[in-house]
Amino acid sequence: MFLTYKEALDWIHSRLRLGIKPGLKRMEWMMEKLGHPEKQLKTVHIGGTNGKGSTVTYLRSILQAGGYTVGTFTSPYIEHFNERISINGVPITDQEIVELANIIFPLAIELEESELGGPTEFEVITAMSMWYFAKCSSADVVIYEVGLGGRFDSTNIIQPMLSIITNIGLDHTQILGNTYEEIAFEKAGIIKKGSAVITGIKRPDALAVIEQQSAKLVTPLFRIGKEFEISGHSALPKGESFDIKTPYGYIENIKIGMMGQHQTENSGLSIMAAQYLNHVHAFKLTEKEIRIGLKNAFWPGRFEILSDQPTVIIDGAHNDEGITALTHELESRYSGRRIHIVFAALTDKKLDKMISKLDRAADRITFVSFDFPRAASASSLMEISSSSNKQVSEEWQAAITNEINQLHSTDILVITGSLYFISEVKPFLSKFFKK
Questions:
Q1: pTM (2 decimals)?
Q2: What is the CATH classification number for the domain harbouring 365?
């Protein structure tokens, strides 16, 4: 039995030794033992390669503006582990983590002695969340973000009101497959019979897989650029503006506070979802509440400006698609200004294309490492780079501090890469700028 938060967290993190174990049998076993809390929840399931967290945030914020109590299950965290299980954007308490860990711990021990084997860290946290939302909260709806893939992800035991699949990229290829079609097939695994699917996928080959699975399960399908369309985009000093047309109407001059054209698509998915919930599941979300929710939505670590003078930006661009969005935004917003980039990544990413794009965007690039089991060494990252102005540092805190101190008034510092890296950088820089 765990008495302290540290004991509970140490045990949860110790499950990382089991790595990733795709499959639902351990989750189904735990849910059976717990009396199926997942069946007591009204849920929305969100998968995809990039944009999951932002889409979760937009939809949560819209639902909150409409007066609903909203649970969210997300990963990874940016500043505090408890963020992963939240109510109305507020993480659960340390004491609640302790209580939930004590509920799941005996089940994990029993599982370890069975042929199924012990649950992974992510399975433990997922089970904790389902018990919490069903038994300890008053959530009207819970939004579940897929951890990895979809078909065999531990969150995929829910029967959602609707599923959202953002875009598709070549990420986690060693597990999900090497082609867009293979990865789309894994993402399409969250589509359930009787539940609508909304997607931001544009690639014809990947979209075809979603369409086939939707047709097979006879589910309503809403595709960006087809059943709903975004137009009239313009960049704001700190955000974006756009119009949207859906089967349920037209809304113009929508404003969001998160930056990047890709955020208009993520927020567009949430608008389509909100309107579907209105018309099919008797939710009551007005256009005014949709606007308020989108304007208030904030997701840390996504093109987040931590300082204006000097300009310091953090962005969890952890794959090729994320780097493409980041470099596009830097070019469109900060053309003519010197860009300094600090980059760290995991070894299981396709790093050559990512680094090549960063090389072109950066006037100077610094490669660093951080304390994480799969973190790439700074020197290995620098070897991939062809930049004529590159440097390496195994101490990322010193590298970032040095970069900030050297910035000229018009320079831009961008710290990017793994979300696990950004989760360490954000609190470090928050303290730095407070000083």
A1: 0.91
A2: 3.90.190.20
Burial of 49 (0-12, 13-18, 19+ CB in 10 A): buried
- How many CB atoms within 10 Å of residue 405? 8
Which among 310, 316, 315 is positioned nearest to 338, based on CA atoms?
A: 310
Task: Report the C-alpha gap between 339 and 327 in whole angstroms.
Answer: 10
Please check the confidence at residue 29 and state whether its pLDDT lies above 80. yes
Q: What is the pLDDT, as a whole number, of residue 362?
A: 96
Instruction: Give the pairing type, strands 311-315 and 85-87.
Output: unpaired
Distance in angstroms (rounded) separating the CA atoms of residues 208 and 201: 10
How many angstroms separate the Cα of 64 from the Cα of each of 11, 46, 88?
33, 18, 7
Dist CA 77 CA 69 (whole Å): 21
* Highest mean pLDDT out of 59-63, 203-207, 344-348: 59-63
For the domain that residue 21 is a member of, what is the CATH number? 3.40.1190.10
In the chain, what percentage of residues exceed pLDDT 90? 82
Tokens, residue 93: 């308490």
Beta bridge partners of 221: 197
- Mean pLDDT, residues 367-393 taken together: 93
What are the b/e assignments for 9-32, b being 16+ CB within 10 Å?
Answer: bebbeebeebebbeebebbebbbe
373: containing domain: 304-434
Do residue 396 and residue 257 come from a single domain? Answer: no
> Is the domain of 101 the same as that of 156?
yes
357 token code pair: 């794009």
Residues 291/275, Cβ–Cβ less than 8 Å: no
For residue range 118-136, list pLDDT tens digits in order.
999 999 999 999 999 999 9
Measured over all CA atoms, what is the biggest interatomic distance in the chain, rounded to whole angstroms? 61
Contact 35/135 with Cβ under 8 angstroms? no
Which residue, among 385, 380, 395, has the nearest Cα to 358 in the 3D structure? Answer: 385
